[in-house]
């Protein structure tokens, strides 16, 4: 059975025929020389959306994160303070050390979910003799699909500004947070000096990510993008599609969040456990007492539904996006019900309370190790 629904990541969305048609209408200028209208249109739209002066369209979230951070890390020795699970620290090939010659201070979120001002304050380095002073605080929202409260972002940002520290946001999935909370992109944007937003995740664009900041920083990032080999020529068709996706797919995210919640509730009702709260389009499930995720992944694949399955692991990240339908979720739950029956699984506490508890807790007690839940390629 071919894969019809790929739930391994929201990067798995497939470009549609409409998108290819739209590409034909794009301008065909050279973006290395900043001469493409469709790219300009996208960059201006995103700069306005976040309430900043300028933006740079780039190939990937890794590139726009690293460019943003590099722009602030001009005088080594310095450091970046971030969540211990942050993508910029764990999944960007050590890019902060490589591109910026900076150290990383990974901080464990004391509430198990998101960094607080107190977590950050306790780890800021001001040691200009033997340390690497904190130059940037880099936050991530959403992180593992969970939303960082705007109030906490504001507290951290106020602290950073009072200490002359730059604020960067890995907003790979900021659209998800904004759509789920109703907090505008602009309101998030005001707390940061630079923001990276991915267009090829839940927004559904085939390629691209964007860095938003002030005009001088964006000019610098354009120069650094060329240095990294990321100067792309006729990028207009990609920009045209990306803008279309922002305007048409992003508003559908609340439906995806509802479906994700339905899947979470269905799976917890069967006796499987949510490892962290489900706020947006991601689920981290523990399928114990099944012997491994594979026991479920195989029959799902036979129905055209693909989930990640690390050999021997019982935990799994499941990600929904706009191309996952209600029928796919129903089918997933039918297969899971069948497997739960075969393995005689019952809800952990045997009553509704257990499911409600695991569904609604907003704060985890400690940071859960979710590494085995990720696909090897995200
Ligand atoms: C939170 C986060 N930031 C950044 C990235 C990097 O994006 P890309 O894969 O486009 O480099 C990812 C990719 O999965 C991500 O999940």
UniProtKB/TrEMBL annotation:
GO CC, any one term: cytosol
Modified residues (N6-(pyridoxal phosphate)lysine): 201
Transmembrane segments: none
InterPro entries per record: ArAA_b-elim_lyase/Thr_aldolase, Low_specificity_L-TA-like, PyrdxlP-dep_Trfase, PyrdxlP-dep_Trfase_major, PyrdxlP-dep_Trfase_small
Record-stated family: Belongs to the threonine aldolase family.
Pfam families (alphabetical): Beta_elim_lyase (PF01212)
Protein name per the record: Aromatic amino acid beta-eliminating lyase/threonine aldolase domain-containing protein
The Aromatic amino acid beta-eliminating lyase/threonine aldolase domain, residue ranges: 6-286
Organism: Absidia glauca (Pin mould)
Source taxonomy: Eukaryota, Fungi, Fungi incertae sedis, Mucoromycota, Mucoromycotina
GO biological process terms on file: glycine biosynthetic process; L-threonine catabolic process
Key words of the record: Lyase, Pyridoxal phosphate
CC cofactor: pyridoxal 5'-phosphate
Gene Ontology MF terms in the entry: L-allo-threonine aldolase activity
């Amino acid at each position: 059975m071919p894969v019809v629904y790929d739930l391994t990541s929201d990067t798995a969305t497939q470009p549609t025929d409409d998108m290819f048609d739209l590409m034909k209408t794009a301008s065909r200028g050279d973006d290395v020389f900043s001469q493409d209208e469709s790219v300009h249109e996208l960059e201006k739209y995103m700069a306005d959306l976040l309430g900043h002066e300028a933006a740079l369209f780039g190939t990937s979230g890794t590139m726009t994160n690293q460019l943003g951070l590099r722009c602030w890390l001009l005088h080594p020795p310095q450091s970046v303070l971030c969540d211990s699970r942050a993508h910029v620290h764990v999944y960007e090939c050590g890019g902060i050390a490589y591109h910026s010659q900076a150290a990383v201070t990974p901080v464990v979120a004391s509430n198990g979910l998101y960094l607080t001002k107190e977590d950050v304050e306790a780890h800021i380095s001001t040691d200009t003799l033997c340390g690497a002073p904190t130059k940037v605080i880099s936050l991530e929202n959403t992180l593992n699909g969970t939303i960082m409260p705007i109030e906490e972002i504001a507290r951290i940002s106020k602290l950073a500004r009072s200490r002359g520290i730059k604020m960067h946001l890995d907003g790979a999935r900021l659209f998800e947070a904004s759509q789920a909370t109703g907090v505008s992109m602009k309101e998030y944007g005001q707390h940061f000096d630079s923001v990276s937003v991915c267009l090829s995740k839940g927004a559904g664009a085939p390629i691209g990510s964007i860095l938003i900041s002030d005009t001088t920083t964006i000019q610098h990032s354009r120069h650094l993008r060329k240095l990294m080999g990321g100067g792309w020529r006729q990028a207009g068709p990609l920009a045209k599609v990306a803008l279309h996706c922002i305007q048409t797919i992003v508003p559908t995210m609340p439906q995806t969040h509802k479906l994700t919640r339905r899947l979470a509730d269905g799976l917890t009702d069967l006796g499987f456990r949510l490892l962290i709260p489900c706020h947006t389009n991601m689920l981290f499930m523990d399928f114990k007492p099944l012997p491994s995720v594979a026991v479920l992944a195989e029959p799902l694949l036979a129905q055209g539904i693909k989930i990640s399955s690390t050999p021997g692991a019982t935990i799994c990240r499941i990600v929904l996006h706009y191309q996952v339908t209600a029928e796919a979720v129903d089918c997933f739950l039918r297969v899971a019900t069948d497997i739960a029956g075969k393995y005689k699984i019952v809800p952990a506490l045997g009553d509704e309370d257990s499911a409600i508890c695991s569904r609604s807790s907003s704060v985890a007690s400690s940071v859960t190790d979710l590494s085995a839940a990720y696909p090897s390629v995200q």
